[in-house]
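Field reference: sequence -> structure
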Amino acid sequence: QEARKKRIADVCSGNVNVEFPGRTRTFEQIPNRELDHLIVDDTHHIIYCYVPKVTLSRLGNPTLTQRLSLLTCVHNSSLYLTFAKFWRRYGSLSRHLMAVKLQQYTKFLFVRDPFVRLISAFRNKFERPNEDFYRLFGSEILRQYGNASSGLPETAAEAFAAGIKPTFQQFITYLLDPETEREKIFNEHWRQVYRLCHPCQVKYDFIGRLETLETDAKHLLKLLEVDHLVHFPSGARNRTTTSWERDWFAQIPLTMRRELYRLYEPDFELFGYPKPDNVIN
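Structure field:
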């Protein structure tokens, strides 16, 4: 843990040769709308940064564990309050309360290899029929980058039945297009973790990795002083592994791979993931 925290501190202080938007700003300078993944559980004095495609659902069944797992479902639950919603409830006191809770509560997040997380997001949202993502993103990707200017099926079910779906290369082209974020920021499933969790502004007490979930979760539960209450099941594994990267990127031009790495380089550097030389060289 100390090495992971030091790595974040080094990157945020500028000691590592990587630059990214927001590195030097203060927590007070972060707009409320960018705080919607910092989830507060007042019962257990926890602040958890929810990162899509990094799940805690294998933490077991006891009550506390169910609550921790529910934190990942915050968008479908009213049990928890995100920092983004503080201003609605507390008005002018919201920033002061945020600062107090950031000092007093245990803050943690779990991360994942950035490219593996990206592959997992693509597989989950575009390789199977998903009506919302087809309507919001898939059809647009096909129109913009798949030469499907007209005649696209109206539903994901119809599109998949006809064998029509975005390719991984089209998805990457969408991510690399500067126009993509002109009007709307990246969807949370492929938005960089540094933009979701603000590790340069929030001093996390615990940084877990999906690749070492079993070990890290046990340490987290001990930190939260509930390890005697919660049994963590063995056998949790990262189903989309880094060994897949070469296969997924095999048909992607080298220039695109390198550009994609630059887009996600802050996450690689902040969380100590090695540069994917097998992909970008």
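Note: Residues 141 and 147 are 9 Å apart (CA to CA).
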